[in-house]
Amino acid sequence: MEENTKGDGRLTPADEKDLPMAPLHKSGFVNIVGNPNVGKSTLMNDLVGERVSIITQKAQTTRHRIMGIVNTPEYQIVFSDTPGVLKPKYKMQEGMLAFSEGALTDADILLYVTDVVEDPTKNADFLQKVAKEKIPVLLVINKIDLLKGNGELEAIVDRWRTLLPNAEVFPTSAKEHFNVTNLMARIVELLPAGEPYFGKDALTDKPARFFVTEIIREKILLNYDKEVPYSTEVIVEKFEEKDNAIHIMAVIYVERDSQKGIIIGRQGAMLKRVGIEARKDIETFFGKRVYLEMFVKVEPNWRNRENKLRQFGYIE
After folding, report:
1. The whole model's pTM is what?
2. Taking a C-beta distance cutoff of 8 angstroms, is the pair 38, 113 a contact?
């Protein structure tokens, strides 16, 4: 038998040829897009296994592109939750739409999320862009738990197949975790081979301050009606973390004095309520005691001011 090992202990090419092949590591960007209020954030959180995106029943809850990262020894999936597609009324919404359209350009796999009650013709221009994609498109028909019979689902699936003929269809209920496991398995199958884009212990690309602002904004969406929550932005001005506690100072920006009064409420009752609810969730998120201070400031017409939108992260 021919000796292939050199005297220094290194393997020759003949030795290496006989060694078993190590499985290739997979990694890729899986971007989640669709119209407002179809359950994109709920699906994202379910796929990631962590509460990365805030969730309310109101449209336009998600304003930024938020990454949630899933790591195993075999693969890394970088999910992106994006704002719902809409026709912009403000410069802020133009920035939100740019996040959604940008998700079409850098994805390895695209998840287009709809639900069983949405009009498929809504935002048809964006849908046509999705239909032209060359990458794998997985069409997620969410909220099927709302249906009463199988015939309804078949009709919905047939209609969507005409709009996105190249997409694979996954009827799901993200809220009930129905068919999400099968969706995840298919995503893993479609992932391209590649090295991790982020550290294997990474959960997201966002800093801690971002999640504080999102939690506070979620409580504003849940506690106020009409235009008020959509006219607000939250900035964390102080985030001082110690071993067992975090001191946070946050500013809620509104566009008018009347909105400031509504946010604060009579004798500060509403602001206190928001603060208590937000603090509890922030403590759960970080696993530490939190001291939260909140202030309200008026910044007129900030949703149309480029300098403010840049400061608030809507324009890069």
Report:
1. 0.86
2. yes
Which residue type sits at 113? V
The per-residue pLDDT for range 239-258, each reduced to its tens digit, is 999 989 999 999 999 999 99
Spatial CA neighbour of 36 closest among 94, 97, 125, 109:
97
Distance between CA atoms of residues 103 and 97, nearest Å: 10
Scan for tokens 């009463």, then name that residue.
148
Please enumerate in sequence order all residues whose Cβ is within 8 A of that of 97, keeping only pairs 6 or more positions apart, or say none. Answer: 83, 85, 86, 88
Phi, psi of 185 (to 5 degrees): -60, -40
Phi, psi of 176 (to 5 degrees): -100, 5
pLDDT at 5: 45
CB count in 10 Å sphere of residue 263? 22
Lowest mean pLDDT across 22-26, 98-102, 255-259, 310-314:
22-26
**One-letter amino acid for residue 278 of the chain:** A
Strand partners, 140: 113, 170
Query: End-to-end distance of the chain based on CA atoms, in angstroms?
Result: 64
Pairing of strands 289-298, 245-254: parallel
Q: Which two tokens stand for residue 126?
A: 């964006």
- Which residue type does 15 have? D
Provide the mean pLDDT of the chain.
90
